[in-house]
Amino acid sequence: MSKNSILRIILLSVIVVSIVVLAGCEERPSSVEPTSESTDTGFPVTIFSSPERTRDAVDAFRTATDIAYQSGENEVVPYAADVVYIRNNPEAARNYVLSMGENYQYPPVIVGPTSTSEASAILNLPKASDILMLSQYPLAAGLRSDDNLLCFAPTPEHELSALYSNMQGGLVDWGATIFPVMPSDYQYMTEYLDATEPYRYRSHLLSYWEPFVFAPGNVQTALAEFDDDMHDQYGLGHVYLLFVGASQHAGDLVELLETIDDYEYLDRVDIIASSAFAGSETLLHSRIALSEMEERDFYSIRPAIDPYGGTGEYYNRLERSIHRPASYQAHITHDIHMLLTGALATFDDNSLGPEDVEILKARIIELSQETNGITGPLSLNETGDRTVIPYEIMEVHDGAWEVVGQSLGELFE
Predict the structure, then answer these.
(1) How far apart are CA 93 and CA 82, in angstroms?
(2) What is the per-residue pLDDT for 234?
(3) Could you tell me if 66 and 101 are in contact, meaning their C-beta atoms sit under 8 angstroms apart?
């Protein structure tokens, strides 16, 4: 064997070993080495993240930490002591919580979980009662009532409130919600139906609202049912059709827009789409769908970012760090950092111990009542949900999406 062949074999072996080592490391929680400044004056926080969904939330948290340190206004600043890339793996989340030690200087805090399945795996652990969780991601309603879980993400109830409040004239005689249901969407659908219930009895919003659930790719069945029901209710005035789904259902919404004129009574229907479709480019690719969106009262909404302005430094630094526009969850993570920093500033030195989870939680809720963040007012209710979230109203004009106004999503009391 020639000398060059031997060298090539050695080089190939080194590359293979390196790939294996790196792959193995990526599956484990990756610890972030704190700076000396963090060690002396920092409040250690664990961030749950997924490279596919919320990785920029880590960058947002670190950016907020840097800005807080440089301002010199806070003696104790939260920093990312651990970042756990769990890849939406409930078992990994559970194992991490079980492995957490006991020797904490402050109450242990996790920014997360990032999904309902992660939350379910963690919250039934006895150890979870000793941890404060601040989630930047939508979670199922049943989990959001947990004592040590504060949720900063919009819920279906926020979204429905924002959608309804923008309906023309305020009073709707008839409405229907269409759900393209995949197995992964059952929880999403159920929460929308549950959140709809209180609004059925708000006479100034609507007198009747009916759900239609159908399999993806079977829009015609739902439209035919709705058209039949409208025939039975002939004489109604303002009628709305709400299309609720995830972004992968954009093709079903296009089909609905392309075929709605085939039905006798649906010609009077105005259409609203849930936030997953706001700004969707897929909806603009169909000439017929585009025409329907521009001719009807069609709109969608999305959670507003920076509705009050004044966050230029954070924006610039974060987008330089990640080289792309940040996700809404990243901005929520910034707001969590801001609230946590403000709450810590209200305690005297060494007055907050690891057993004071409830005290810290209560202080965060108290401070939230008067704090505006990048995602709007951060006011939390007693169960740890945002009381109000601002949304942008989006319509299609001249072949492009435009922001045409704002609407507030409020929790039903």
Answers:
(1) 13
(2) 67
(3) no
CB neighbourhood size of 46 (10 A): 23
**Contact (Cβ atoms closer than 8 angstroms) between residue 30 and residue 83:** yes
3-state DSSP assignment of residue 324:
coil
Sign of CA dihedral 131, 133, 139, 140: positive
Q: Which H or E run contains 132?
A: strand 132-135
- Tokens of residue 396, six digits: 């299609």
Interval 240-283: pLDDT, tens:
888 888 888 898 899 999 999 898 888 878 888 989 899 999 99
Question: Do 90 and 119 form a contact (C-beta atoms < 8 A)?
Answer: no
**The domains spanning 32-151+307-387 and 169-296 adopt the same CATH topology:** yes
CATH 1.10.3470 fits 169-296, yes or no: no
- Residue that the structure tokens 């948290």 belong to: 61
Per the CB < 8 A criterion, the answer to whether 272 and 243 are in contact is: yes
Task: Report whether 400 contacts 172 (CB < 8 A).
Answer: no
Q: What pLDDT was estimated at residue 336?
A: 95
Of all helices (H) and strands (E), which one includes residue 213?
strand 209-214
Pair 290, 258: CB distance under 8 Å: no
DSSP for residue 27: H
pLDDT value of residue 364: 96
Nearest residue to 189 via CA among 246, 253, 145: 246
Nearest residue to 277 via CA among 311, 305, 295, 252: 252
Domain boundaries, the chain: 1-26, 32-151+307-387, 169-296
- Taking only the tens place, the pLDDT of each residue in 187-221 is 666 676 676 665 554 434 444 566 777 777 788 88
Partners of 271 in the β-ladder: 241, 298
Q: Is 26 exposed, middle or buried (0-12, 13-18, 19+ CB in 10 A)?
A: exposed
The CATH code for residues 32-151+307-387 is 3.40.50.2300
Distance, in Å, from the CA atom of 170 to the CA atom of 259, rounded to the nearest integer, reads 27
Give the CB-side neighbour count of residue 150, counting CA atoms within 13 A. 30
Q: Rg of the Cα trace of the chain?
A: 24
Residue 308 CA to residue 265 CA, distance in Å, equals 42
CA distances from 373 to 31, 276, 334, 335, 369 (A): 28, 22, 8, 5, 11
Low-confidence ranges of the chain (pLDDT < 70): 1-41, 52-54, 88, 168-174, 181-190, 192-193, 195-210, 234-235, 237, 310-312, 413
